[in-house]
Amino acid sequence: MQLLHTLCRIPAPSGNETALSQFLQNYINQHKASWSVQPEMVVGKDFQDCIILIFGKPRTAVFAHIDSIGFTVRYGHELVRIGGPATEPGYQLVGQDAYGDISCSLTVDEETGALGYEFTREIERGTELTFQCNFRETETTIQSCYLDNRLGVWNALRLAETLEHGIIVFSCWEEHGGGSVAYLAKYIYEQYGVHQALISDITWVTEGVDPGQGVVISLRDSLIPRRSYVNRIRDIARKAGIPHQLEVEGSGGSDAKELQHGAQPWDWCFVGAPEDNVHTPHEIVDKQDIKSMLALYQVLMREL
User: Fold this and answer.
1) Are residues 25 and 152 in the same domain?
2) Taking Cα atoms as reference points, which of 232, 247, 245, 246 lies closest to residue 299?
3) How confident is the model at residue 13 (pLDDT cuts 50, 70, 90)?
4) Any residues with CB less than 8 A from the CB of 300 and at least 6 apart, and which?
5) In which domain, by residue range, is 93 found?
6) Per residue in 44-81, pLDDT tens?
7) What predicted TM-score, i.e. pTM, was given to this entire model?
8) Same domain, 105 and 230
9) Domain total of the chain
């Protein structure tokens, strides 16, 4: 889990993913020689901080967003949310501005709910703050901030080790409205003719989804994927004997929203491990669900 620990510690709030993108590019270049197939890496100014990996003759693309929730310093001691972080007073936040490193505490006004910070000085406006990483591992669980979606990124990197045919996409901005998947999907569709996708992201433990019972195949969230495509995925999972659960939600979303709203005929399905303590510094995932997530992706990328 050292790789996952490292990923969770690199700050990459939506809009400022450069540090994590550079880490991923370096990691890929250092390790790809040991992978079954050495992919073509597509990066550059036309793709901002996103990364596309092309393996063999691809039929399916895996999308994993690299950004996280967080906060932006406004004026004085005010904070503005990036995405939808939990806001419990006393959460430890970290960052860096022109005057040095920052380690401060989140404050929440009891009457207005306004967010702020407690620090020894005023932080430069526009500075991003993220949860301080306290990575905890037991025999059965992993707990940390930003398992959503560093675990989805970890899953994609582990998948890359044995992937022969497929595309892996590391996208940006997902937690704060999206914006990158539209042009990534257009490029992939036009260049490679690929139009089916898996969303390597993390979902929630709910009254119908339990930790330790397997990876989740989502039948719907705020959007509804094409049922015939989802049924193919369910059949493959069932025949492979991989533990999995089915999710039905009426809210929430992922990189899939830009695929479904785009001009190309993309099929998609969200496939990911469930976590508890969502969008807090204490997100927790069962190791059995991590294991089944990777196993199902390996099978799906061969069979779809």
Assistant:
1) yes
2) 232
3) very high
4) 60, 198, 233, 236, 237, 271
5) 70-131
6) 999 999 999 999 999 999 999 999 999 999 999 999 99
7) 0.97
8) no
9) 2
